[in-house]
Write a structure and sequence with these properties.
Layout (H helix, E strand, L loop, with lengths): L5 E4 L1 H12 L3 E4 L6 H10 L2 E4 L3 H13 L4 E5 L1 H17 L3 E9 L5 E5 L4 H5 L10 E2 L4 H18 L2 E7 H5 L2 E4 L60 H15 L8 E4 L7 E5 L4 H13 L4 E6 L1 E3 L4 H6 L4 E6 L5 H7 L7 E5 L7 H10 L3 E2 L1
Parallel strand pairs: 2-3, 2-4, 4-5, 5-8, 7-8, 11-12, 11-14, 14-15, 15-16
Antiparallel strand pairs: 1-9, 5-6, 7-13, 10-12
C-alpha cells in the first residue's frame, strides 16, 4: 500500500497541472474572479503564457495559436465567456481545438464575483449558433478535476473542437487536504495529422474529423475559414456539399459521444425507487445526503453526470428505472433538468434548486423524504 501523500491543494492547481501534462502548450487569459488562481498557475506551468488585454482578444489569440498547431487553454467566468461567444463560434466552425475552463459564479450580469453557482450550463447548451453541440465536462471532486481535464484535452484534439470544463468557485479556490496518490498518470495528446488519400483541409477522416495540418506546413496547402465551406475550404452559400460539411460538425460529436460520455451511478445495496441526479460541486452534498438516507433505511441511488453536453440517451435509460428522480443543482430553474425535459417535466421529475449558497445535504434529504421539489 502506498503511503498517503496528503497536501493542501485547490482545484485550480490540479486542473492546470492536468492540462499541462495532457498536452497544453499555451495559457491565454484575461484575469477575472473567481478563476484568478488558474491565471496564476497557468503563468507558472504552461510553456507559453499570454496575458490578453480582454476576453475577445483571448479567444482570437487562442484561435491563431491553434491554427499553427499550438494547443491553447484559457479560464474565465460568465462575463468573460459572454464576450467570447462570437470567437468561440469562429473556432468551432474552423475546427480549432482548445479548452475553455469556466469558473461559475452568481449572476445575473456581474452578480457576485465571490459567490459560487451552477448557472452557466444553459448558455453552453446554445452557445454555438444553429443548435450545434459542444462538449461540456463538469468535475464533481478533485479526482474528476484531474481526469476530466485530461479527457477535455483528448476530446478537443481528437475531434478538433473547443471543449468546456465547467467548474465552480468552491472547486477551484478552496484548499482541501488531498492525497496526491489518487491522481493517476496521464496520457499526453497531440494533434492528429494522419492523412489518408488526397488532402483537403476539411475532408473528414477518422471519427468524421479532418486531419490537422497547421498553417505554414511545408507539404500541404491548408486553409481555415469560419464561413460555410466545402471540403476544400471554399466558401459556398446554400451548396449541398457545404451544408453537409456543416452538419458534420454536429455529427462528429454526437455520433462519437460514447467515446467521451462519463458518469457514475452509485446504487444502493437494496432496490431503490428514488434517484438523485446531480453534477459539479453539488455532488458533494448529494453523496452525503444519499449516505445518510441509506443509513436511515431509505434506499436511494445517486447519478453524478460528468459529461453534461451533448446529452447522451443513456441518461434517460437510467432514469426510466425509478419512480422518483430529483435533480439537485445550484441555479434558479434546474438548468440540466430543463435541458433534458424542457419546461414541462413529468411529475415524478423533481427539482432541488438554490442560489446564493450551496445546497445542503439536509435539503436534498428533505426533498427525497417528502417527495417534493424545493426552490430555496
Amino acid at each position: 500500500m502506498e503511503t498517503p501523500k496528503n497536501t493542501l491543494i485547490d482545484g485550480s492547481k490540479i486542473i492546470i497541472e492536468s492540462l499541462a501534462q495532457s498536452g497544453a502548450d499555451a495559457f491565454v487569459a484575461y484575469p477575472i474572479t473567481p478563476s484568478n488562481w488558474m491565471y496564476k498557475y497557468g503563468k507558472q506551468r504552461m510553456p507559453l503564457f499570454l496575458a490578453a488585454p480582454d476576453e475577445i482578444s483571448t479567444l482570437q489569440w487562442m484561435a491563431g495559436l491553434s491554427a499553427t498547431g499550438v494547443m491553447p487553454v484559457t479560464s474565465s467566468a460568465f462575463p468573460g465567456i459572454a464576450l467570447m461567444v462570437e470567437s468561440i463560434n469562429m473556432a468551432y466552425a474552423m475546427e480549432l481545438p482548445m479548452v475553455i475552463v469556466i469558473t461559475q459564479r452568481l449572476g445575473p450580469s456581474t452578480g457576485s464575483a465571490t459567490t459560487g453557482a451552477q448557472g452557466d450550463l444553459s448558455l453552453l447548451n446554445g452557445i454555438i449558433s444553429g443548435g450545434y453541440p459542444v462538449p461540456v465536462f463538469s468535475p464533481s471532486d478533485f479526482t474528476d478535476a484531474w481526469e476530466l481535464s485530461n479527457k477535455a484535452m483528448e476530446t478537443a484534439l481528437k475531434y478538433r473542437t473547443p471543449v468546456f470544463l465547467l467548474t465552480s468557485k468552491e472547486m477551484v479556490m478552496y484548499q482541501r487536504s488531498f492525497d496526491l496518490n489518487r491522481l493517476r498518470p496521464l496520457k499526453k495528446f497531440t494533434y492528429d495529422r494522419h492523412i489518408e488519400g488526397e488532402f483537403k483541409p476539411y475532408k473528414p477522416g477518422r471519427n468524421l474529423t479532418p486531419p490537422f495540418v497547421p498553417l505554414g506546413d511545408d507539404e500541404h496547402l491548408t486553409r481555415f475559414t469560419a464561413s460555410t465551406h466545402d471540403a476544400d475550404a471554399n466558401i459556398r452559400k446554400n451548396d449541398p456539399e457545404a451544408l453537409e460539411n456543416s452538419k458534420r460538425l454536429a455529427r462528429k460529436l454526437t455520433e462519437n459521444l460514447d467515446d467521451y460520455f462519463i458518469y457514475t451511478l452509485d446504487k444502493s445495496s437494496e432496490p431503490a425507487r428514488d434517484l438523485v441526479v446531480t453534477w459539479g460541486i453539488t455532488a458533494d452534498a448529494a453523496r452525503e445526503a444519499v449516505a445518510h438516507l441509506r443509513n436511515q433505511g431509505h434506499p436511494v441511488d445517486l447519478l453524478v453526470v460528468k459529461t453534461l453536453l451533448p446529452v447522451h440517451p443513456k441518461l434517460y435509460e437510467i432514469m426510466d428505472g425509478y419512480d422518483n428522480v430529483y435533480f439537485a443543482e445550484e441555479n434558479l430553474t434546474g438548468q440540466f433538468k430543463e435541458i433534458l425535459f424542457g419546461h414541462r417535466a413529468p411529475e415524478h421529475i423533481r427539482s432541488i434548486n438554490k442560489i446564493g449558497n450551496m445546497i445542503k445535504p439536509s435539503e436534498i434529504e428533505e426533498a427525497v423524504t417528502h417527495q417534493k421539489s424545493l426552490v430555496l
